[in-house]
Amino acid sequence: MGPKFLRPLTAPDAEKGQAVQFGLDNPLTLDSGRTLAPWTLAYMTYGALNAARSNAVLVCHALTGDQFVASAHPVTGKPGWWETMVGPGKPIDTSRFFVICANVVGGCMGSSGPAEIDPATGEPYGLSFPLVTVRDMVRAQAMLRDALGIEKLLCVTGGSMGGMQVLQWAASYPDRVISAIPIACAARHSAQNIAFHEVGRQAIMADPDWHGGAYQLQGTQPSKGLAVARMAAHITYLSEAALQRKFGRNLQSRNGISFAFAPDFQVESYLHHQGMTFVDRFDANSYLYITRAMDYFDLAADYGGVLAEAFRGCKTRFCLISFTSDWLFPTVENKRVAHALNAAAATVSFVEIDTDRGHDAFLLDEPEMFATVRGFLNVVAATQGVA
Amino acid sequence: MGPKFLRPLTAPDAEKGQAVQFGLDNPLTLDSGRTLAPWTLAYMTYGALNAARSNAVLVCHALTGDQFVASAHPVTGKPGWWETMVGPGKPIDTSRFFVICANVVGGCMGSSGPAEIDPATGEPYGLSFPLVTVRDMVRAQAMLRDALGIEKLLCVTGGSMGGMQVLQWAASYPDRVISAIPIACAARHSAQNIAFHEVGRQAIMADPDWHGGAYQLQGTQPSKGLAVARMAAHITYLSEAALQRKFGRNLQSRNGISFAFAPDFQVESYLHHQGMTFVDRFDANSYLYITRAMDYFDLAADYGGVLAEAFRGCKTRFCLISFTSDWLFPTVENKRVAHALNAAAATVSFVEIDTDRGHDAFLLDEPEMFATVRGFLNVVAATQGVA
Hints:
2 copies of one chain form a homodimer. Chain A contains 11 helices and 15 strands. By secondary structure, chain A is of the alpha/beta class. In chain A, strand 14, helix 10 (331-343) and strand 15 (347-353) form a beta-alpha-beta unit. Chain A is globular. The interface between A and B is large, with 56 and 56 residues.
């Protein structure tokens, strides 16, 4: 018995996307040794799969992203998180390519995750949900790809944790990924990044409304802790230069500083806004799970500590993109990947884009990134006879 | 009626230090427009004031520092925070110099601050304590200097917020500061630094044990929130390179990752330790007050936005020190100060020390810093006839 599509593939629910349910006979085997069955993967598609099934582009989302790449988010109503990149006539052109994006396993937008109901108990998983890794996320997406009947992906792309998944895709399924565009990422999470994630997790777990992860049963939500986690993380997504340019020491009020603890500076109000809007759309436990997955990511570790071995014999064409002011996944980490790919004799081009916008640049209007992705995909599509 | 020395100057309590109480006739006038009276400044001295009263060196402490520069901390029992720098035969040689260090106003080691008893109510101040600025801290120390009968300070030095105070000292009292060594600081707090501070404050204020700042009355302490604040801040005190060198992705256990949320990585345990030990020695409200003072610091703002004007006509000799890997107060901020001093025709030398230890380098064993301070103080002492 194959997986069950919860919403028909041919007539997707434009708002809520699609979902495929894998039954007891299609368990997801996790790196932890545990299995998940039944389990669900929620996803969106844009454009049409061609007759040769050769025009599929998989987009992998970042920590707080979701499957709504190029259409409105059903909770916030805001545009898709990569509408500048994906759509008709956009660099990832949905009038040519069939774009797939799945909510990662462990996420909170319909895929199996800690906020979903555990079919074994009828209650939310909470912390009983098994920990997942980036490789588990990719393994889950590979099962979706099979369910969709796609042999090879024309391209896998994504930024940040999405880029980690891209690297894992090329390592795990070298014969089924024609090309890969990992953006603003690394082959391993650094000590500093683990440290920032741990601060966020501690902020969440310190919130008494977290209730050991069982807050859904208590009818609460650790909103304050999650907001603090988001605020701390958000600083790392920007650059000092961008913060200086956007906010500097500008005050909220023309009357000067208040000599109080309410936000005096615009940068404080901006951070508060980031924290408050985040808790409306994201599950605190999912934040714990996905940050942990990123921390655990160390691609070389699975290959005797030699990153090049992860790509040995890999036929995938790579296009790496990094940003000069990204201090979360600095260019040096992206270069490590490029060096490993070179050492593995893979085909790789590497573009470092000059911008002061920090890590978040991959989500923003960056013409050089758009031109790079568009040009690279044109070449790759031509080699595969994709119109 | 002059200020009252709570412990005799000639026989200091080696453990708890000394304190001077300023009465109702000696109010501390604050930048907020409020006044503090009576009020107390707790301090330590090391070495002996010479007959000419010309060998006094004032050390200003950083955000979480205190007056225990060169002697054991009375709560933790740990060595003074700058024992590598201050002591007999050390770069700031207490066999030559009379070293003074006061707990800043707003602090929690005996000086008037939110954790102290408000004499007007008999209860802890909590948030009724007035907000203070770096200039207020300096103003308070100037009153201590006067109470000690010292006309001119041979040198004022300190790192981080201590360095901010040094700059303020030179600007506020140009005729009474012979020399100044601001280390790893800036003439204004950046947007990014304000943002990190606000995350810490939000973590504290989100803790239900904070009780709107009145936790002393409730018999609680917002330990979890304060620990999160400390953990986030601590990351900014180090550098990515130092974290990589010290911890990398090293695990706590030889059995590999746990697939759970307990600390798997050594860097996580290290951060937890930093958070837990901090809450034993520091008051959460003081953390709010002092971070706010740093955020408010913008020396140029008091001089029409032109930093050089803060030092116009200043006779103080400056020695600026920064560290290559300090991303909290990067060299560029220190250079801004150097440029302003040059523009004001002040005497200034500037040393950037190559280290991967980040902002915390100023507290660590940095031979080039020691040699710089020692050499500079030798020259300054010679010009003043100090043996």
